[in-house]
Design goal:
By secondary structure, the protein is α/β, with parallel strands linked by helices. 43% of the residues lie in helices and 18% in strands. The chain has 11 helices and 12 strands. The strands form 3 sheets. Strands 6-11-10-9-8-7 form a 6-stranded parallel beta sheet. Helix 3 packs antiparallel against helix 4.
Length: 288
C-alpha cells in the first residue's frame, strides 16, 4: 500500500527550508568547514532505517541538499509512502562531503518527523480500510510545520481537513455560544461568506443535530458522542438529507476507530497521528 500527498511548490517550500538551514548552520559549520577546508571531495551517504515504518518526506530532504549544492544527487531507495524495514537503505546521496554533512541534520529531522506521522496514520487507516469511513487530520499541528505534517498524513492514507481557518467554516461550541445558537450562527455566516465555502457545525446532542439540519449545514460533526447516540444521529441525518456529510470526532484511538467507523459516518477526524506519533529513527552513514 502506497499513498502520495501533494507537497507545496518550491516558492512556498524553499523559504521554510532555508530558514531551517540557517537555524542549524548559523555563521557556518565549524566542524565540517574546518575539517575539510573547502575540499570539494565527493562522497556517498546512505540513509539507513533503524526501525520499521512508512517513509515520507524524501523529496523534501532532496531539496534541502539541493539548496546547499545543486549538484547533489539524492536517490530514494524506498518509494514514498512504502513500508521500510529496519536496516534497510532508504536513500543514497552523492555529492561533496561538506554538503552531505551540513545538510544531514535538517534533512534527517524532516524525514524522521514526517515518516513517524505517516507510520501512525497508516495504522489508523488500516483499522478502517474495509469500510466507507475515511480518516481526516486536524489543525493540531506544530507551528511552522503544518504543510508538511499534513502532507505526511496524506502519505499515510488520510485525507486533509481544512488547512487553515480560511478553508471552510466550522462552527464550534464557542461560536455557537457567542452567536446565541446554531441557527443564528449559520444564518449570519451564510449571508457573508463566498458561496463555494462549506459550513460545518459541531454538535454534541440530537437536539443540536436537528437544528443543524434545519438550517442546512453542509457537514455535521458528532463530537464526543457515545456510540449509541452517534448511530442514532447518523440515522436521523441520513433520513433527513442523505447529501449531508457526517464527521465523528473526539477521543479517537486505534482501539476505538473501528467501532466509530461502523456507525456509518463519512469521516473520522483525529489529531493523534500527528500529536501522538514518534519519529522514525534514521541514520546517515558516509561510505566513501
Amino acid at each position: 500500500m502506497s499513498n502520495f500527498g501533494v507537497l507545496p511548490p518550491k516558492l512556498v517550500l524553499d523559504p521554510m527550508l532555508r530558514g531551517w538551514l540557517l537555524e542549524d548552520l548559523g555563521r557556518g559549520d565549524r566542524t565540517t568547514q574546518t575539517l575539510l577546508n573547502h575540499n570539494a571531495t565527493d562522497g556517498l551517504a546512505l540513509w539507513v532505517a533503524k526501525a520499521n515504518g512508512v517513509i515520507a518526506g524524501l523529496a523534501v530532504a532532496a531539496r534541502v541538499f539541493e539548496l546547499l549544492n545543486e549538484k547533489v544527487s539524492f536517490v530514494p531507495r524506498v518509494p514514498e509512502g512504502a513500508w521500510c524495514q529496519r536496516q534497510e537503505v532508504v536513500a543514497e546521496i552523492h555529492g561533496s562531503l561538506d554538503t552531505l554533512l551540513m545538510g544531514e541534520r535538517v534533512a534527517l529531522n524532516i524525514v524522521m518527523r514526517l515518516s513517524g506521522i505517516a507510520t501512525l496514520t497508516r495504522k489508523y487507516v488500516e483499522q478502517i480500510s474495509d469500510v466507507s469511513a475515511k480518516l481526516v487530520d486536524t489543525r493540531k499541528t506544530t507551528p511552522g510545520l503544518r504543510l508538511l505534517e499534513k502532507y505526511a498524513t496524506q502519505v499515510g492514507g488520510a485525507i486533509n481537513h481544512r488547512m487553515g481557518l480560511d478553508d471552510a467554516v466550522m462552527i464550534k461550541d464557542n461560536h455557537i455560544a457567542a452567536a446565541g445558537g446554531i441557527g443564528k450562527a449559520i444564518a449570519r455566516i451564510r449571508a457573508q461568506i463566498p458561496y463555494p465555502l462549506t459550513i460545518e457545525v459541531e454538535t454534541e446532542s440530537l437536539e443540536q443535530v436537528q437544528e443543524a439540519l434545519q438550517h442546512k449545514a453542509d457537514i455535521i460533526m458528532l463530537d464526543n458522542m457515545p456510540l449509541d447516540l452517534m448511530r442514532e444521529a447518523v440515522q436521523i441525518i441520513r433520513h433527513y438529507d442523505h447529501h449531508v456529510k457526517i464527521e465523528a470526532s473526539g477521543n479517537i484511538t486505534l482501539e476505538t476507530i473501528r467501532a466509530v467507523a461502523e456507525t456509518g459516518v463519512d469521516y473520522i477526524s483525529s489529531s493523534a497521528p500527528i500529536t501522538q506519533s514518534t519519529w522514525l529513527d534514521l541514520s546517515m552513514r558516509i561510505s566513501g
